[in-house]
Amino acid sequence: MAHLLATQVSEEDEKQRAAALAASKAKPVEKKKKSWWQALCCGSESADEEPPQSKKDEKAAAAKPQAPTDGKSSPQPQAAAAPSSEDEEEEPERAEQSQQSEEPKWLLDPLSAEDQKKKIKTLVLDLDETLVHSSFTYIPDADFIIDIDLDGVIYKVYVRKRPGVDEFMRAVGQKFEVVIFTASLAKYADPLLDILDPDRIVSKRLFRESCVQHHGNYVKDLSMLGRKLEHSIIIDNSPFSYMFQPDNAIPITSWFNDKNDTELYELLPFLDSLIEIEDVSTVLQQKAA
Ligand SMILES: [Mg+2]
């Protein structure tokens, strides 16, 4: 079931999805629905789809060059690292970005002068299984339903909100620059966020094309945000998402339907404690250890 995961998408998986999508017209409704769902959303359909950790991925994460964290200079775009002889075919590759581009653009617009002066921190939030759980099959306790138009056919997606997500969003929106970074496609995530974030707390939505494909995973490279790494925090249920900058990450368990989950509530005081920290990695590194 790992093929359903946001960060477990190998080239072979992609081929299979494309083939399934192409063949789906001749298949039963449920298979057809699952095919379009797999192509759109990187969330998991059930709790048994945790991504397996591997030594290879740990090695790859460790080998990724880190952005400067001197706390003084503004971040600069990083040129693609020279491929190693061992992993030449699997070097990071931004989806749909021209390899001819010498100066990759930042994923975020520059901070306002006011936010720069306040040294506001950037909080990057994953979507699926971090803030919500979505399903292409009917679930009776969905908080809301979104319609997705695919080639003129309307499909329904049932969305459950993680307990506390509304309060969490309101709270972090007052203190952080909030960015949603998902490996799912905009066609699914955009209408979902229109409902999840009615007050437009999120300043930027980043989708699959902003991820880096690395060793078959969609990785969210914080060094491409255009923000100081020491001011950047990511909350994500998948360790693969932050494998390039693990010291900037706050892990969170994958959420599907546990109504007694309190992790978002519990994160708020910890996030508050990071606001005045000069380099968040000094704290988050210790938290992960
Ligand atoms: Mg996720």
Question: What ligands can be seen in this structure?
Answer: magnesium ion
Strand content: 15-25%
Q: Helix segment count? A: 8
Q: Give the CATH architecture of the domain at 111-288.
A: 3-Layer(aba) Sandwich
Helix content: 25-40%
The CATH topology of the domain at 111-288, please?
Rossmann fold
CATH class of the domain at 111-288: Alpha Beta
N- and C-termini, Cα separation: 29 Å
Largest sheet: 5 strands, parallel
SS elements, strand count: 11
Q: Give the CA-based shape.
A: globular
What is the CATH superfamily of the domain at 111-288?
HAD superfamily/HAD-like
Structure commentary:
There is one protein chain. The radius of gyration is 19 Å and the shape is globular. With 289 residues, the protein is of the alpha/beta class. A 5-stranded parallel β-sheet has the order 7-6-2-10-11. The chain has a 3-stranded antiparallel β-sheet with strand order 1-8-9, with no helix packed on it. The chain contains 8 helices and 11 strands. It has a domain at 111-288: Rossmann fold (3-Layer(aba) Sandwich), CATH 3.40.50.1000. The model is unreliable at 1-10, 19-27 and 47-90 (pLDDT under 50). The longest helix has 13 residues, at 11-23. The structure holds magnesium ion. Magnesium ion binds next to loops.
